[in-house]
Amino acid sequence: MQPYELSLTQAADAVRARQLSPVELADSVLERIEQVEPRLQAYVTVTAEQARRAAREAENDIAAGRYRGPLHGIPMGLKDLIDVAGAATSASSRVRADHRAQADSTVAARLAAAGAVLVGKTHTHEFAYGLTTPQTNNAWDRERVAGGSSGGSAVAVAAGTATFTLGTDTGGSIRVPAALNGVVGLKPTYGLVPRHGVTSLSWSLDHVGPITRTVEDAALVLTALAGHDPHDPASLTTPAIDYRPGTGMDLTGLRVGVPRNYYFDHVDPEVEAAVRRAIAQLESLGARLVDVEIPLTRYIQATQWGLMVPEATAYHERTLRAVPELYQADVRILLEAGELMPAGDYLRAQRSRTLMRQEWARMLQYVDVIAAPTVPATAVKAGQETITWPDGTAEGVSDAYVRLSSPANITGVPSLSVPVGHDTAGLPIGMQLLGRPLGESALLRIGHAYQQTQPAPTLAPAV
User: Fold this and answer.
1) 173, 352, 406, 417: which is the annotated catalytic residue?
2) CATH architecture of the domain formed by 3-253+412-452
3) First to last CA, the chain
4) In whole angstroms, what is the distance from residue 177 CA to residue 134 CA?
5) Is 149 tagged catalytic?
6) pLDDT single digits (tens) 395-427
7) Rounded to whole angstroms, how far apart are CA atoms 47 and 450?
8) CA trace torsion 349, 354, 360, 363 (10° rounding)
9) Catalytic member of 90, 149, 415, 441
């Protein structure tokens, strides 16, 4: 096994035991980037020289007994919405062509303090306003979409061109590409991970979180990221904890909610079958399955768009009027549409969110987590605009991909996407686990227990 093939946990163990040096690990990942990046286009920029320098510093620190923990010397990629001092934050847009960050974002600073090694900035759908990331190819089939908007981050992890990455998630933008590329994606509780220094799409829906090979890896990254930040007005004052899930597989006493409605409506049969098999596996580990009714489903789409569209337009108001021609057409149209939305519609969306949060809190009194598909279909062909369901209903690709992930953004509850197999075309399928606010430990425990029953994750073929 080459170093770039190691999960974060495996790499951290090898580095701590002095069986693998950070320099060897960084060189292996950078060589992998050279090999597959021309076909995948996961990165906006690769910082090879800086990465090798940081890896040498990590190696020297560890040799001198200054080991900082499991992220020390580990190669990472950051979605190109996340500021790193002196580097461009392009948001994959011509609008940001001349931008340079003046300071580290809070999450970049925390990862640097933990000793992680930045190898590059990963592509996003322009300003995170989309679900496909068209610049980047799916790690399992280059003719298919990567998912978005954190498509570059998910593809980098799936292809071995980063040991872990960070993404952002406003309606599913961590979990959607994670599911479509067969990796783990975690959207934490709203406010748990600071967003200071991260380009916003929709301030009341935005989250930052890890994309990794395994659930255990995600827990390591979350432990480094979580904690109060006075620079983020939404940041929670929750004490920092260790999210590592342990090795236990016994889920006796845990109640897993299985939706009777919404989450299995208009879902590809292969996706549904794979997710239900995974749910049955949780039951075999001792969990009790409980049927649940998802509340207020008819309002989910309207609430998501009613919040996101005007907030995004407000953020882009100045540049949209000054340089509209620099935006891609799909993003510009959405931003212009936001200028036409009445204030009353935004206020009604806010009221709807309040009701949804209340109803979800009631539902989650009776179960510990909810298990459901992450997305209703695997990765579509690049350029495909709609998905047609067996009953003849046609749905836009972006609407389909966001449909099952957006409730967690509206309500702010944590959601973890875990790979649960492949369809007959060999494309990955994801299951999401949704929990109570600040219920990340339960999600990670259950996801890790499930992964221990499965074969070890493998990298995408990257061809």
Assistant:
1) 173
2) Alpha-Beta Complex (3.90)
3) 19
4) 12
5) yes
6) 999 999 999 999 999 999 999 999 999 999 999
7) 35
8) -130
9) 149
